[in-house]
């Protein structure tokens, strides 16, 4: 009898423990998660675009006459002013050609004077009816031919003088001297493929980048017209190739009206000051373009998870976690998403630990 009572008591204890364990397990299954309520707010995003740098003017310096370089007047990387000599090409043959041309002009001028004297003389004889009109016309034509000859040799003199001036190659603009592939003694000429050097006007730098057609249309919808986009966008940042930010801000100057059919992008040109010459023509970097979003639904990326390129959140509905797909804007700051579809103001979503949540699981809100 005593054994039966002990057995019954032991069985009751086991049942009690099982009931308590079941209650605890059920309580443990209802996990607590932090929850945020969806509202609208403003956010500034920064979109990065690959960019290339060019001087305001990159001028190729090509010789206009042939000859050997007799003097090199600058060094690579030197800053030069407009009109400053860069190279001198052997001037001796061109000085001789100019002297010949000048002598030809003087001879032609003498021929004109002789022809004029002959014409004036025959005009007097014609007036006295000593010679015929035919003789007078011959003298007149001879004077015209002499004048034409004078004009011809004057043109040759101008060409000779220009050729001599071209032997001194001068900078067409303020800028920085590029590489110098030709040195003193090198034979150069107008037909050579490689320029003597390139002068880069880098006081202001042109930074070129491209935006997709959809992105540029989004900006136009936001501001109204391409001109308004240029006026309204705030100052932009240039991130250099080493990851640092350029110390001065720039602005968009032009937006191309042509879409590249191969890439589907629109070319945009920015202008950055470069007084300290920290930017180099031919360099690369990234344009960081700020974009302001107002009245947008913004959620932390930690509140989302991704499956097969689709983004989901867990809405809390009647105490349960409900997986819901959302559509977000392509632009983001790495911490937040702008939600275009799938959420409305007032929705509650789990903000952390979404990787541990199961769809349809009961959850409680963690204060």
Q: Describe the largest sheet.
A: 12 strands, antiparallel
The Rg value, from CA coordinates, equals: 43 Å
Strand content: 35-45%
Structural class: alpha+beta
Tertiary shape: elongated
**Whole-Å distance between the termini?**
55 Å
Beta-strand segment tally: 19
List the secondary-structure elements in sequence, H or E.
HEEEEEHHEEEEHHEEEEEEEEEE
- Averaging pLDDT over every residue, what do you get? 87
Describe the structure.
The protein has helices at 2-29, 92-127, 133-166, 213-223, 226-232, and strands spanning 31-37, 40-61, 67-72, 79-80, 85-89, 168-170, 175-177, 187-188, 197-212, 237-240, 251-259, 265-273, 284-300, 305-307, 310-317, 320-328, 336-341, 348-350, 363-366. It is an alpha+beta fold and 367 residues long. The longest helix is centred in the N-terminal third of the chain and has 36 residues, at 92-127.
Notable traits:
367 residues, alpha+beta, 12-stranded antiparallel sheet, 4-stranded antiparallel sheet, 19 strands, 32% helix, disordered N terminus
Sum this structure up briefly.
By secondary structure, the protein is of the alpha+beta class. It has helices spanning 2-29, 92-127, 133-166, 213-223, 226-232, and strands spanning 31-37, 40-61, 67-72, 79-80, 85-89, 168-170, 175-177, 187-188, 197-212, 237-240, 251-259, 265-273, 284-300, 305-307, 310-317, 320-328, 336-341, 348-350, 363-366. The chain is elongated and about 135 Å long.
């Amino acid at each position: 009898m005593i054994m039966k009572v002990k057995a019954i008591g032991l069985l009751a204890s086991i049942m009690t423990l099982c009931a308590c364990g079941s209650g605890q397990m059920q309580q443990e299954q209802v996990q607590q998660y932090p929850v945020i309520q969806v509202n609208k707010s403003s956010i500034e995003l920064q979109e990065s675009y690959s960019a290339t740098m060019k001087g305001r003017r990159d001028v190729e310096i090509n010789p206009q006459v042939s000859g050997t370089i007799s003097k090199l007047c600058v060094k690579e990387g030197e800053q030069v002013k407009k009109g400053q000599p860069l190279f001198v090409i052997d001037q001796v043959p061109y000085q001789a050609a100019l002297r010949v041309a000048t002598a030809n002009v003087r001879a032609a001028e003498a021929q004109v004077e002789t022809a004029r004297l002959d014409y004036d003389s025959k005009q007097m004889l014609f007036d006295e009816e000593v010679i015929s009109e035919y003789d007078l016309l011959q003298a007149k034509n001879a004077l015209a031919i002499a004048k034409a000859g004078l004009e011809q040799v004057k043109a040759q003199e101008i060409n000779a003088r220009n050729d001599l001036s071209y032997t001194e190659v001068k900078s067409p603009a303020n800028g920085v001297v590029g590489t110098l592939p030709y040195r003193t003694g090198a034979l150069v000429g107008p037909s050579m493929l490689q320029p003597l050097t390139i002068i880069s006007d880098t006081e202001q730098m042109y930074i070129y980048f491209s935006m997709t057609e959809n992105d540029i249309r989004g900006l136009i919808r936001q501001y109204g017209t391409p001109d308004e986009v240029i006026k309204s966008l705030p100052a932009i940042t240039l991130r250099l190739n080493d990851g640092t930010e350029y110390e001065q801000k720039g602005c968009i100057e032009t937006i191309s009206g042509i879409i590249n059919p191969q890439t589907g992008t629109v070319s945009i040109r920015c202008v950055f000051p470069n007084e300290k010459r920290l930017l180099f023509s031919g360099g690369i970097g990234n344009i960081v373009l700020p974009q302001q979003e107002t009245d947008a639904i913004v959620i932390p990326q930690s509140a989302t998870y991704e499956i097969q390129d689709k983004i989901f959140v867990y809405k809390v509905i009647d105490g349960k976690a409900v997986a819901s797909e959302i559509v977000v804007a392509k632009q983001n700051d790495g911490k937040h998403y702008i939600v275009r579809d799938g959420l409305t103001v007032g929705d509650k979503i789990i903000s952390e630990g979404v990787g541990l949540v199961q769809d349809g699981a009961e959850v409680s809100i963690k204060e």
